[in-house]
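Hi C.,

You asked whether I'd gotten around to modeling the 737-residue construct. I have! Everything is below, sequence then structure, no commentary in between.
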Amino acid sequence: MLERRTAIFLVNLIQDVSILRPLMIMAHRDFGFDVRVLATAKFRSRDLFGIWEAELDLLCRETNARVVIYRSDWEAFAELQETGIIFSASESNVPEHEASHALFRYAPPTFLKVTLQHGFECVGFRHSPAHDRVYGPKVSFGADIVCAWQPAKFQASLAPSQRPKVLVTGPTGVLQPFTGRVARGSGPGLVCENLHSVRMKSIAGSSDEFLASFTEFCRLMAEDGERVLLRPHPGGQFVLKNNVELPPNVEVNNAPMYRLDLRGLAYGISAPSSVLIDMLLADLPTAVWRDSQGSVDTSNYAGLTTVSSPRELREFAIEAKANPSRFVDLQRKFLQEQQLVIEPREVFDAYVRLFQAAGRIEARRAQPRIERHRLLVVANAHLPTVQVCLERPLQPLVDRGELALELLTEPRLKEEAARLESPDRLGAWLGEKMDLFGPDAIIFSRYSGPHSSHIVDWARRNSVPIIYHIDDDLLAVPRSLGEAKHAYHNAPDRLETVRTLLGTADLVYVSTEALRERLVARFPHLPAVVGAINASGRVMHPPRPGPAKVIGYMASADHLPNLEMVLPVIADLLDAHPEIAFELFGSIPVPAELARFGDRVRWLEPIADYAEFLKALGQREWDIGICPLVATEFNRTKSNNKWIEYSSLGIATVASAGMAYDDCCSGGCGFLAQDLDGWAFALERLLSDDNARVAMVTRAQQKLEAEYGLAAHRQQILDIVRLAGERAARTLIREDA
């Protein structure tokens, strides 16, 4: 008997809810699929008035669906462990669709991935010239199936590589039409704004002209005692976001289109937008607004009535009420010529075939055999990143003999290159070593050194996946980190190695979402995955009761600007509390401003071995640890490693707000400081309230174990390796084909 299937619906943009709604109901009602919604955190932030979250909650109650709000690719991927079908209404390689596109690229083959055309002029299907100027003509999809509203011959923007994916289904909106009797034309007219669109924004003055025409039109209608409904675009909400003053006879209707029965309205007017198709399907007399110069492209709506000036809008409104059939006949002809699939039974049957196909997928998952894992890590040196982010969580598997982990460093490669005196001989030496070890994945961790091409060539010959692991923006290391570090990372050959490996890797394993966004901005097609955990830990020491005695900061020398940012607060505290000491652990020097405090300010030399470092830090019995970060673009990509380490050792954390520590410190698990006053308040509170400090650390340690544990981190790495292998296999299949 086949296992029960799962239907997953990705919600990223506001308008996704309307497009996916009929299919969620269909999946639950007609096929008995387990329904799940994966919604991005950005969906919530885009829903300014909470309308769509409420709609989604109601829909989930109707379909017995579970909602997962995810903040990173990894959190979403963790939900893809079953078999079934994934739908997205906003998936392509344009930046606004990146969240869905990334998920589609890495979803396991046990899911059928389906992208829905979400509008008449949808990006990648039949978009306008303005979209070409912004996104380019070659938009692609990560889906297996691309559901279109019309035959492919009408989809002028479909890239040739995407045409084999097309299945003509028609729009999902026709699956739930309004029924019952209605007094046609008895209500007011409807005007829809689409002022946030690329098309309008790309033409100077078009938005202002639309608003001016609309305002004057409403004044003219008021003279006739007529009301006008205004519907803001669900995602744009231009008139509401910008507090546009509206005439008194205007009523804003912000309800989802599936709750607005267009049949009862007198007419509809809109700038080019898919809402025009909704109007046509309802046999509502409809006009397309365009600017007086004709700069706004309306070519996809050729054959429909067009209006520009307030006088033309009023004349259309009067004629639509007096003689609606004149417009309706024209509109039906337009729909027929466009060959839109709009018959509900035909659309339903098309989606039935998709659900049936998902039901036939056989999930033959191999049971994980950890003992077979052999990982080669290539790094510039035995860096803390290698130890913290890879070796430490994997060490239990190594200790049990279930995992072989090999480290190859840049100094070793240079040493062998000097000894062999020939690139060919070095390549042969590397080949022999790698043949002998037989890695089933290669992880380049922050690697920027020479000779990586030999390793890549071996991996490609042997179908071994390549992962590039990165936890800093190595392509934009600023001078503020020090001249030596700046010169090292910005050497042209190192930058070229990083770029090449990013472009070569089957998977790029990124530490934070902020870093992924910076990398994808440079490389739009980068196969980048964010791990929910960058550093992990376990509780090693409980919080120390009693009065706080030591504030500490562990950092390398390049963090000096971060320390200097909070130095005035540290100095004031040391003046106010003569019983308190301040310690620095690492290569960061003691600032001259603190010299006057004598032996109350102590420096501890760095320890390279991470286990020994943690042991030594635990012995220092710090009560409070600080995590200052200057708000630079480079620092915004930093990870929350210090909070992990402080929390594991029973140390309370005070960190810069708006950086890497917002999530881990939330829920009373750390103090977040916005400015120097915030730093002073947080440190003073922890120094003066011992119970509050102990309670904070206790909460932090509970979160550490629940969300940043070593076991979860270990599984994340193994899953990353699996995903890289699946992606490499897909690449190989495409190349063979």
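If it helps when you're writing up: The chain is about 40% helix and 15% strand.

Thanks,
B.
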